[in-house]
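note to self — DONT lose this again. spent like an hour looking for the file last time. sequence + predicted structure for the chain T wanted, 303 res
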Amino acid sequence: MSRIFDALQRSGTEQSGVEYPDLISVVTEVFEREKNSAPQALAPVATETESPSFESSISEERLTDGSVSQPSEFPSLNISVGPMSRLVFLSAPDSLPAEKFRFLGVRLRQFQQSKSLKRVLITSTIPQEGKSLVSANLAGVLALRKQRVLLIEGDLRRPTLAQQFGLGRLAGLGEWLQGDGRKLTNLYRLDGPDLWLMPAGDPPANPLELMQSGKLSRLMEQLSSMFDWILVDSPPLLPLADTTVWARLTEGTLLVAREGKTERAMLQRGLELVKKSELLGVVMNGTNANHDNYYQSYSPRPK
């Protein structure tokens, strides 16, 4: 972990005198499972004390028309995830990669104890850094705490989340934004992980225009009364403006970087684009697992 702390420290302190002291304390590594090999030796999460647990406190909040929100009324879907899926909270729940995501979920719940935090934006600086993978796994581990979790596929241009869950074409956010906005539709409950998904749907011709129409803001307010967590998998920060719209509608941002993919200058630029007060931390995805040999797996050893 020290090399990542050092890299982030440099990225934070070398940009025009702007420092990110909180960033260093919440950085998290996420290891990817190899699809065709046995689990590799991975390093444990670097924590000084055992992370506390927080029980869910689901309240029955009411919508503007006075009705009690009922997300369970939306249609349910069966997902198709194979044993080599990188949705490790489902395919390998006892693995260290899954434990890393659970730790990240604990850190978010810790933040929630001290600040208003329900709507979280998950983004990256450039494409192919793994933000959708992080979004899906994080939503899954939060849902395991018996909390109401909604995952929004906020990338209307190049969506991938529905595909990761093995789902076919579904009407989603794009279709809802192009409708009259009177009825809340295109939400789906995923059987198994017990979380809700609003997919992107078919990519519209004018995504940024749709997002700035005012409907999206009203939608997020309505959804906030129904769920404990709303995670938005947004487009990357560069070179699109879509993420700035999502940033105005969320309360905190996780920035995903990928070892071997994200150049320091790009990470530095990404940090500059995220409002300091809303930056929850950086997730380092796809890190090299060649650390000291601590654990092969978090699953119990057979007796």
